[in-house]
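S.,

As promised, the heme C run. Input:
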Amino acid sequence: MCKKCWSFAIVLLILLSGMTYKFIFQGSVKISNDGRLAIQLEQPEKDLVMSEMRAFLVAIQQITDGILKQDMQAIAKSARSVGLTTQRSVPGSLIGKLPIKFKKMGMDTHNQLDTLALDAIELEDSEHTLSQLNTLMQNCITCHAIYKFEVNN
Ligand code: HEC
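Predicted complex:
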């Protein structure tokens, strides 16, 4: 291949890896004044993620209620409603703005809720459910401590 073509190919490769890094790993973030990383989103994107968050909170309350009442079916139903299997598809533009660590923690939380649902039915042990809830809520705390959302207009 000619010298120029090589340089062109190398420049392309650098650009491509930069874009891959930006899209897959870094997301769209700024350091915010409270020390957290502020993920920059459009208003409808923020609305979508926040509605998921409120669904998380509702499910956590319902699971706690189910533990108190020893109602394993209700526990499984609530946990499944916010599990990975029932997630609506997230637009690609939003995926690109979320840092990889955020996505991993989000997926892991949905996954843990699916496991909690399965175990509730299979093991019928509310103590076990409580301990799973305790563990998965560490994700809520960790993620909220690191990230926030900012709407850029
Ligand atoms: C992967 C990261 C992540 C995880 C995991 C996560 N959250 Fe959030 N959540 C956020 C961010 C970011 C915000 C916005 C905070 C801000 O802008 O100050 C938020 C906001 C919220 C809100 C406010 C919603 C509103 O409408 O104002 C609730 C409630 C909430 N989360 C509940 C939860 C619960 C319960 C869990 C665990 C089951 C959880 N979240 C797990 C990132 C996460």
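The beta strands are 29-31, 37-41, 147-151. Helices lie at 3-26, 43-69, 72-81, 92-97, 100-123, 126-146.

- D.
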